[in-house]
């Protein structure tokens, strides 16, 4: 550990938050249908989308109609992607000659990219053709992110409005977020990344003759275009197996800084956009404060943890035995720690170092950050939406303590909101722990684990945490490309995505219909330090308590084993 | 649900056209125009125009005249068509075994030097093009002896191919192994590839 490392972590986390502010104002304008400086170029494309799809963007939908549109769109995306994966062998742009993907892997992958998870049971450069990557996966990288943003836009409108019936138009939210926010930013980022060395090639590979005369086949791919939206859309699925550890996906410390900032920037932007659209900037600033405090603490714990002596290196008599296993030289400990926190605090899941080889507490922290609900700042929109649900729960708990009807952002919080909040929050541990427990029990379930002992359990727990949280990162030693795992992880991704989405929309529908109240003397202030503290408490207690027994058997016990090994 | 079908299907197809066709085509075109060398993979060619590798991708070197890279978990080592980390957990006995064997191999040519962590650990990609300056320094005497040149000459070449952290604190100091080896060959050609 050194000051440079701490400065780098602070810069990466801080820059994303700072850039999220102006981008959030822009995003809010897009959600609200206000004019933007991109109108001259983008407006005609937007109109063409509406005309061809037969959509009236001004028609506000009830929460049920909004949800039905969302499900229909995601279902169409799933079916299209599934078909593409199965038929890969006969589709064009397949210079590597890869054949169609097996049914279970196609199911898993299609669900994975539609749900913004980007869990990858496969190795990119050895499985997917350029056509699949570009025309299949890249498209879902965009629209799954826009789907998440739509939820936040709808919820924000619900809080802003007074006795509304509708919560907005799903198609308008989806199309506008994609065309005005995600696409222009991705074009700029992709071009900048190519300047830093990221590959963008439609060749299958390049063959080199090494200095010692051996032949080296170097896979190349249309990387930059997918990488840009992989980060900005908080998706995380790499073109290459090694993801952002691969030098073609992340060649330099500068590309690392830029793509690390891109992991979080639209998550924060959605926070600030929510604040502007819901006309509750101060309250949302409090939510962002709680989120950045927890995220920074997570990054610090990972950094400290990775800098501790690694037992295998100590045994071999290595000077300064910090844990460089699975980490790139150009990134070292600090870049890897900051990234690990950012990718799991957001629901990104890209990695620039292999989490399976992290120290027990470093790897355990990445798992915990996902378990806290993917709200730090989480996905584009999905993060702030669940964070608001957390805040609703926090005011409810505070209301119980002082015996008042709780309010949040001028809306009364009543039984219906809390019921759906519990559905949104409790499906996550149910799916994570349920599928993990089933997998331990089914014959052959444990055969996919790579590492022995407590670390093996961590691999399993991590996989279902990641899938349910729609994160997509992995303790990568696991061999998940077998029917049970592909199916179980696919189901976990679906449960973790669509149950909370429907619950949040139901809350939005209920909130929208309520009158907007002016704050009174009895209203709990939700923008001050007290509330930030209360919220952090709720988030940590909810996350830690539900998972503590499982974590105790994985990373915690392994940490004590490491201490024991070092004491020898 | 029926009235959702048209917007769902049509918008999905339009998105596929725009984001799966136009967008990557625009980026590919821009790459070819603005950054052709990077877009094709930052390839290094010898004087005859043959590709010897990519400056971003490590490759195996085992002869004493060359700087050696970190251990690699990609295939048999630096398989650039199958990037991978080792994914060994911190207490996996296979990790301790491998690290000890690699440390012993380094001590065989540098008995007195302190071995840095990166010298015995595999990278996340298995394709790490770089090593720490400390690991490079350990190899100087071996290279100098094999090439029958002064150690200071080797040090100078390594220094030329060392990059410092951006702005002094972003990323790590590092030595590009392939660029160093190419520069060493330029300076003192060895009969390679025999």
UniProtKB/TrEMBL annotation, chain A:
InterPro entries: KdpA (IPR004623). It is found in: Cell membrane. The chain crosses the membrane at residues 6-26, 63-85, 139-159, 179-199, 254-274, 286-304, 375-400, 420-442, 484-508, 529-548. It holds the Pfam family KdpA. Its main location: membrane. Keywords: Cell membrane, Ion transport, Membrane, Potassium, Potassium transport, Transmembrane, Transmembrane helix, Transport. One of its GO terms (cellular component) is plasma membrane. GO terms for molecular function: P-type potassium transmembrane transporter activity; potassium ion binding. It is a multi-pass membrane protein. The system is composed of three essential subunits: KdpA, KdpB and KdpC. PANTHER family: POTASSIUM-TRANSPORTING ATPASE A CHAIN, POTASSIUM-TRANSPORTING ATPASE POTASSIUM-BINDING SUBUNIT. Part of the high-affinity ATP-driven potassium transport (or Kdp) system, which catalyzes the hydrolysis of ATP coupled with the electrogenic transport of potassium into the cytoplasm. This subunit binds the extracellular potassium ions and delivers the ions to the membrane domain of KdpB through an intramembrane tunnel. Belongs to the KdpA family. This is Potassium-transporting ATPase potassium-binding subunit. It comes from Devosia sediminis. The gene is kdpA.
From TrEMBL, chain B:
Part of the high-affinity ATP-driven potassium transport (or Kdp) system, which catalyzes the hydrolysis of ATP coupled with the electrogenic transport of potassium into the cytoplasm. This subunit acts as a catalytic chaperone that increases the ATP-binding affinity of the ATP-hydrolyzing subunit KdpB by the formation of a transient KdpB/KdpC/ATP ternary complex. One of its GO terms (cellular component) is plasma membrane. The system is composed of three essential subunits: KdpA, KdpB and KdpC. It is a single-pass membrane protein. HAMAP family: KdpC. The lineage of its organism: Bacteria, Pseudomonadati, Pseudomonadota, Alphaproteobacteria, Hyphomicrobiales. It comes from the Bacteria. Belongs to the KdpC family. GO terms for molecular function: ATP binding; P-type potassium transmembrane transporter activity. Keywords: ATP-binding, Cell membrane, Ion transport, Membrane, Nucleotide-binding, Potassium, Potassium transport, Transmembrane, Transmembrane helix, Transport. This is Potassium-transporting ATPase KdpC subunit. PANTHER family: POTASSIUM-TRANSPORTING ATPASE C CHAIN, POTASSIUM-TRANSPORTING ATPASE KDPC SUBUNIT. It is found in: Cell membrane. InterPro entries: KdpC.
């Amino acid at each position: 550990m050194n000051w440079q490392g701490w400065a780098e972590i602070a810069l990466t986390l801080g820059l994303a938050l700072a850039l999220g502010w102006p981008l959030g104002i822009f995003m809010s304008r897009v959600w609200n249908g206000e004019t933007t400086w991109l109108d001259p170029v983008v407006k005609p494309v937007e109109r063409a989308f509406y005309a061809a799809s037969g959509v009236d963007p001004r028609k506000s939908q009830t929460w049920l109609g909004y949800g039905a549109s969302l499900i229909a769109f995601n279902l169409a995306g799933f079916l299209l992607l599934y078909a593409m994966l199965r038929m890969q062998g006969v589709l064009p742009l397949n210079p590597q000659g890869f054949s169609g993907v097996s049914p279970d892997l196609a199911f898993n992958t299609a669900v994975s990219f539609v749900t913004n998870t980007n869990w990858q049971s496969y190795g990119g450069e050895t499985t997917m053709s350029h056509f699949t990557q570009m025309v299949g996966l890249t498209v879902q990288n965009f629209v799954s992110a826009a789907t998440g943003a739509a939820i936040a836009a709808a919820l924000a409108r619900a809080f802003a409005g007074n006795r509304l019936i509708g919560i907005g138009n799903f198609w308008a939210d989806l199309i506008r977020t994609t065309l005005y926010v995600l696409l222009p930013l991705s074009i700029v980022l992709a071009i900048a990344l190519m300047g830093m060395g990221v590959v963008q090639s439609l060749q299958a590979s390049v063959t080199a003759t090494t200095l010692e005369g051996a032949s080296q086949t170097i896979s190349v791919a249309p990387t930059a275009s997918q990488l840009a939206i992989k980060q900005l859309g908080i998706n995380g699925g790499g073109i290459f197996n090694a993801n952002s550890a691969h030098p073609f996906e992340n060649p330099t410390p500068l590309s690392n800084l830029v793509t690390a900032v891109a992991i979080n920037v639209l998550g924060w932007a959605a926070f600030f956009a929510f604040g502007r659209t819901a006309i509750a900037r101060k309250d949302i600033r409090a939510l962002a404060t709680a989120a950045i405090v927890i995220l920074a603490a997570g990054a610090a714990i990972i950094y400290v943890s990775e800098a501790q002596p690694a037992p295998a290196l100590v045994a071999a008599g290595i000077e300064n035995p910090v844990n460089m296993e699975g980490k790139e030289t150009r990134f070292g400990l600090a870049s890897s720690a900051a990234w690990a926190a950012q990718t799991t605090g957001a629901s990104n899941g890209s990695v620039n170092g292999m989490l399976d080889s992290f120290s027990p507490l470093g790897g355990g922290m990445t798992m915990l950050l996902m378990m806290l609900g993917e709200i730090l700042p989480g996905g584009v929109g999905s993060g702030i939406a669940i964070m608001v649900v957390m805040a609703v729960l926090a005011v409810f708990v505070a209301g119980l303590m002082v015996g008042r009807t709780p309010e949040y952002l001028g809306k009364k919080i009543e039984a219906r909101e809390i019921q759906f909040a519990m559905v949104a929050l409790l499906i996550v541990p149910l799916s994570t722990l349920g599928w993990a427990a089933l997998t331990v029990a089914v014959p052959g379930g444990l055969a996919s684990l790579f590492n022995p002992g407590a670390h093996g359990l961590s691999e399993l727990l991590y996989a279902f945490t990641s899938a349910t949280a729609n994160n997509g990162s992995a303790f990568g030693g696991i061999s998940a490309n077998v029917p049970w795992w592909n199916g179980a992880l696919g189901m976990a991704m679906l449960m973790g995505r669509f149950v909370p989405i429907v619950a949040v929309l139901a809350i939005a529908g209920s909130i929208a219909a309520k009158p907007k109240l002016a704050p009174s003397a009895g209203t709990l202030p939700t923008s001050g330090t007290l509330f930030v503290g209360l919220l952090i408490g709720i988030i940590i207690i909810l996350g830690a308590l539900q998972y503590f027994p499982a974590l105790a058997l994985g990373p915690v016990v392994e940490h004590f084993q490491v201490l024991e090994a070092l004491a020898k | 649900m029926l009235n959702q079908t048209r917007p769902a299907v049509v918008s999905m197809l339009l998105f596929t056209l725009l984001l799966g066709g136009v967008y990557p085509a625009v980026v590919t075109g821009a790459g070819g125009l603005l950054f052709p060398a990077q877009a094709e993979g930052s390839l290094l060619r010898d004087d005859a125009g043959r590709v010897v590798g990519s400056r971003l991708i490590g490759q195996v070197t085992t002869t004493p005249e060359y700087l050696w890279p970190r251990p690699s978990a990609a295939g048999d080592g630096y398989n650039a068509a199958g990037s991978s980390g080792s994914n060994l957990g911190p207490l996996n006995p296979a990790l301790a075994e491998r690290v000890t064997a690699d440390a012993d191999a380094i001590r065989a040519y540098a008995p007195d030097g302190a071995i840095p962590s990166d010298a015995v650990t595999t990278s996340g990609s298995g394709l790490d093009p770089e090593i720490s300056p400390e690991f490079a320094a350990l190899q100087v005497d071996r290279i100098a002896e094999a090439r029958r040149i002064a150690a200071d000459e080797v040090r100078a070449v390594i220094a030329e191919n060392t990059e410092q952290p951006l702005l002094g604190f972003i990323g790590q100091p590092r030595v590009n192994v392939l660029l160093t080896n190419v520069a060493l060959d330029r300076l003192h050609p060895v009969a390679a590839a025999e």
